[in-house]
Amino acid sequence: MIFHLLSRLSAKVPSVVYRAALIMKPQVVFVLGGPGAGKGTQCARIVENYSYTHLSAGDLLRAERSREGSEFGQLIDSYIKDGKIVPVEITINLLRKAMEETMEMDEKKFRFLIDGFPRNEDNLQGWTTVMEGKANVKFVLFFDCTSEVCIDRCLERGKSSGRTDDNRASLEKRIQTYLQSTRPIISLYEKQGKVRTVDASCGVDEVFDNVKAILDKEG
């Protein structure tokens, strides 16, 4: 059933990524870090100063969950509320759709910050299966921050964000999921020399100064 629904989702958008790959493959930076590490804030600043398009896996999932008539809304909602990772087939199709739409509107927009993905080994394997040869992962931008700071930031954000997962019970589950599932992916990329680490416990401006130094060096 889920694969039938995914095929319908994929069919809704022309396969621009695949056609554009003949000219320019999407250039991808994975943005990883715990909940509340500041990934979204820093990605917004990167977009303002560099030619990147920000794609948040979490935002795409939340938007799909809220979209009227979504085949996946209820399923996504149950995973998010439990602090679990949504099935990779859904996430990758949403990311691919977003890249296709972006490149269809402007072929010069082929640089992407993919925020909050890959979150586990299943995500990584799914990406490799679907996107290998169709997109270049340049490096991983890792925002390193303690669990305590992450939780405090999310609780503060929850006062105005309206997000159902910005509460202590969900946060503790999300932190455990991050430590158990995402950190090993970061370690894997570290072994490949593809991780660029930023101390995310600093103030927003100081963090971005460090991010700029990395992006300017990477070109």
Question: Which structural traits does this protein have?
Answer:
219 residues, alpha/beta, 5-stranded parallel β-sheet, 10 helices, globular, kinase, Adenylat_kinase_CS
Q: What's the structural blueprint in terms of helices and strands?
A:
Elements: H1 2-11, H2 16-20, E1 27-33, H3 39-49, E2 53-56, H4 57-66, H5 73-81, H6 88-105, E3 111-115, H7 121-131, E4 136-144, H8 147-161, H9 168-191, E5 195-199, H10 204-218
Parallel strand pairs: 1-3, 1-4, 2-3, 4-5
Helix pairs in contact: 1-6, 3-10, 4-5, 4-6, 6-7, 8-9
Descriptive report:
This is UMP-CMP kinase. The protein is α/β, with parallel strands linked by helices and 219 residues long. 58% of the residues lie in helices and 14% in strands. The chain has 10 helices and 5 strands; from the N terminus they run H-H-E-H-E-H-H-H-E-H-E-H-H-E-H. The protein has a 5-stranded parallel β-sheet, sandwiched between helices. The longest helix is centred in the last third of the chain and has 24 residues, at 168-191. The chain starts with a helix and ends with a helix.
What ranges have pLDDT less than 50 throughout 5 or more consecutive residues?
A: 16-22
User: Helicity range of the residues?
Assistant: 55-70%
Overall strand count = 5
Helix-strand pattern: HHEHEHHHEHEHHEH
Q: What proportion strand? A: 5-15%
Strand order of the largest sheet: 2-3-1-4-5
Briefly summarize what is shown.
The chain is of the alpha/beta class. 58% of the residues lie in helices and 14% in strands. The protein has helices at 2-11, 16-20, 39-49, 57-66, 73-81, 88-105, 121-131, 147-161, 168-191, 204-218; strands spanning 27-33, 53-56, 111-115, 136-144, 195-199.
